[in-house]
């Protein structure tokens, strides 16, 4: 195929994908927002269930595009035999973070296997039309990031985000859920990795506070603590590259992590000994994930 034909095919694919995603957003977004407004009057389990069905339909359109418009992307997905997933389950999930594509990968895997995935996200995303407001209505924990200078000026800012996250986690307990935490807190880049002097080859340093909070609230209520690892063996893609079909291979590994007996026996914020023990546990998880990424890369050579 000539370069011109390849370019035309890519442009056509891009236009088709963009048009479909935009149309799907305008079809699914307004009903989610309209139903969400009714929660200002009274909470309703039926409204929540309807909104989740609409959102899964919304995500289903994206998955249909992946299967039918991006057929050249080869997926390698492995699931730990100890991990028995259900649409009625309650799961806490952690994942490495490299690209905006990570969230689409998570949705591609999870939409037919697990309850709707919420994840800790930036408050600023609420200003994205339809999508940002849907995050809030659907119970995504939305965090405002404050600089050290801002916290020094107003120390209450340090705990305000935690309280908002606590409320969001507690609200999830009324339904099946998957709560995703990108422990690195930001997308991996070589520059960030070097600036952190990260001890891990493929990961940034994990931030354990949000996970500790989620486990404190949800730990005895969840069916499994899930570790998802995503590898792009041909290079980390941008969001546009993914939807243009320029990602040849994606590898995903999911496994269950057993929670230690002591996990709910302390307070991460106020107990230094517990905090150190928790951070050591997370470090062990991260070391194992770092090795797993190396193994996944080697298996895909």
Automatic annotation (TrEMBL):
GO molecular function terms attached to this record: acyltransferase activity
Pfam families: Acyltransferase (PF01553)
Domain of life: Bacteria
Signal peptide range in chain numbering: none
Keyword Transferase tagged: yes
Residue ranges of domain Phospholipid/glycerol acyltransferase in the record: 91-233
Keywords linked to the UniProt accession: Acyltransferase, Transferase
UniProt keyword annotation of Transmembrane helix present: no
NCBIfam families registered for this protein in UniProt: PRK14014.1 (NF010621)
PANTHER family: 1-ACYLGLYCEROL-3-PHOSPHATE ACYLTRANSFERASE-RELATED (PTHR10983), LYSOCARDIOLIPIN ACYLTRANSFERASE 1 (PTHR10983:SF16)
Protein name: Acyltransferase
Species: Acinetobacter populi
């Amino acid at each position: 195929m000539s370069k011109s034909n390849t370019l035309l095919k890519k442009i056509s694919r891009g236009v088709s994908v963009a048009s479909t995603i935009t149309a799907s957003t305008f079809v699914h977004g307004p009903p989610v927002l309209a139903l969400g407004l009714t929660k200002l009057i009274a909470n309703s389990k039926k409204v929540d269930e309807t909104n989740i069905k609409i959102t899964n339909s919304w995500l289903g359109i994206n998955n249909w595009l992946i299967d039918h418009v991006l057929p050249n992307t080869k997926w390698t997905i492995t699931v730990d035999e100890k991990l028995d997933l259900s649409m009625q389950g309650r799961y806490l999930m952690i994942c490495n973070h490299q690209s905006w594509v990570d969230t689409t990968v998570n949705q591609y895997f999870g939409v037919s296997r697990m309850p709707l995935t919420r994840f800790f996200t930036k408050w600023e995303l609420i200003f994205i039309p339809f999508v940002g407001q849907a995050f809030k209505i659907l119970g995504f924990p939305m965090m405002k990031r404050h600089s050290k200078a801002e916290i020094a000026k107003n120390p209450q800012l340090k705990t305000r985000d935690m309280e908002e996250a606590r409320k969001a986690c507690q609200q999830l307990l009324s339904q099946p859920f998957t709560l995703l935490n990108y422990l690195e807190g930001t997308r991996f880049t070589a520059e960030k990795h070097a600036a952190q002097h990260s001890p891990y080859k493929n990961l940034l340093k994990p931030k354990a506070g949000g996970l500790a909070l989620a486990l404190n609230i949800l730990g005895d209520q969840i069916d499994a603590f899930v570790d998802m690892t995503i590898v792009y063996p041909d290079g980390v893609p941008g969001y546009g590259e993914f939807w243009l079909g320029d990602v040849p291979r994606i590898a995903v590994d999911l496994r269950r992590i057993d929670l230690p007996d002591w996990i709910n026996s302390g307070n991460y914020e106020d107990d230094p000994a517990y905090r150190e023990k928790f951070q050591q546990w997370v470090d062990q998880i991260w070391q194992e994930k770092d090795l797993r990424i190396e193994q996944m890369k080697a298996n895909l050579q």
